[in-house]
Amino acid sequence: MSEKVDVVVVGGASAGYAAAVAAAESGAERVVVLEKARRDDVGGNCRYSAMGFRFVHDGADDLLGLLSPARREELAGRIRVRPYSRDEFFADLNQVTKNLIDQELAQILVDDSRSAVDWMTELGHQWVIWPKPVRVDGFLEYPAGTVIGPADGGLGLVERWIQIGGRLGVELRTESRVSGLLGNFHSVQGVVVDGPDGRYEIEAGAVILASGGFQASAERRARYLPPGSDLMKVRGSRHNTGEVLDMAVALGAATSGQWQGGHASPIDLNAPDVEVDNTVNRYAYPHGITVDVNGKRFFDESERHRTYTYAKTGWAVIKQQGGIAYQIFDQQAVDLFPEAYRAAVPVQADSIEALADKLGIDAVALARTVEEYNGAIDDSVPFDPTREDGRGTVGISPRHTNWARPIVEAPFLAFGVTGGITFSFGGVRTNRDAQVLNTSLDPIRGLYANGDMVGLFHHNYPSSSGMTRNAVFGGRAGVSAADAAGRR
């Protein structure tokens, strides 16, 4: 059995639907999205994320213009957000990836970031301001880079994509696993599908791969990621297992990104093994200290704002004995906890020694760590939670660069954490039009990719830039694929 379509998209989450909708808008008459999950599980990692978008903007008034009239009226005159420029976004991408990000793709991501959000808004996506603010002088203050997210979170985003696609005639087929690519090193003409009623082929004018990374496969984590990664918890969908990525590489696709890297963040020690949502995030670490099972600090908790460090902090934790660490706070930090801590139940005690006993940590060692940290704080620098304030430690290693305050106000709190992986960084190499390149760095005709299938990031990534990438390059993939389908 076989059929013909203009464009087939592999993957039914935000990366796939951005491309599918763009293809339909660009004249592709028949666009089919293939998703291996059941309908009530469609959406990949989006289903499990509160989610934000990082994009260039001119500050609070500019961002308020994206909200509904009711939300705009509610927040007008109450929020403060400084502008986020193209230069700053581009610098952030390079700083966290150690300048290894593809410079052309990074520049496109930055330059097209705001127009991509405007396009989504015109399509019918709705936005909210979602991070927890810091209250200063009666204002709600937000960090510049990531302020806006989709109404109803990632699941709301996916369902709106599906509705928008449906209005444009995009067909969603669930329980439809792609088991082969029809083509070779030079061109691709379709896919092999294992659907609910058996195997069949789809001949397509263009194929867009958007099925995510390989992080939900323990075997592939063991193959590509650092030792012990196969035992990590998966902060997201169980369906991102990497077989389509392997197919593209076997066909001759060039690779890019850091194949031994990925987005790994600190999450609750008792979180489920897979399909972990935002309620288990533990991102308050810049406002306390984090220690291993021996009571010793092992990284700079406040190198930068957490939106620039959380995606690598999980790796720091997973490298510790047993892949376990403990975040230690006093009462001064509580007002700065992100929303996810509301549902968390900390270990509490009126002394550091008693806290250590409850955690099973050497009490003398933890007390010494806290004493050394408290004594090293440069209290001549004012504390300012609204920016990277430079209030750090002197003379101890590792440093605590910002927001350092002595841990002295009981009861003291501890949260057990481990590292959870969200998405892998290794993927196929693409050009500015989202065409997949072969190992000769020529475009594979008819083959495109978007999302975590594409190798873009190294070492780390600025929070929420992945979602913006999905919209920016999904738009480009869809337009290019529709054009290719029209020429066949």
TrEMBL record:
<dbReference type="InterPro" id="IPR003953">
    <property type="entry name" value="FAD-dep_OxRdtase_2_FAD-bd"/>
</dbReference>
<dbReference type="InterPro" id="IPR050315">
    <property type="entry name" value="FAD-oxidoreductase_2"/>
</dbReference>
<keyword id="KW-0285">Flavoprotein</keyword>
<dbReference type="InterPro" id="IPR036188">
    <property type="entry name" value="FAD/NAD-bd_sf"/>
</dbReference>
<dbReference type="GO" id="GO:0033765">
    <property type="term" value="F:steroid dehydrogenase activity, acting on the CH-CH group of donors"/>
</dbReference>
<feature type="domain" description="FAD-dependent oxidoreductase 2 FAD-binding">
    <location>
        <begin position="6"/>
        <end position="465"/>
    </location>
</feature>
<dbReference type="InterPro" id="IPR027477">
    <property type="entry name" value="Succ_DH/fumarate_Rdtase_cat_sf"/>
</dbReference>
<dbReference type="Pfam" id="PF00890">
    <property type="entry name" value="FAD_binding_2"/>
</dbReference>
<protein>
    <submittedName>
        <fullName>Tricarballylate dehydrogenase</fullName>
    </submittedName>
</protein>
<keyword id="KW-0560">Oxidoreductase</keyword>
<keyword id="KW-0274">FAD</keyword>
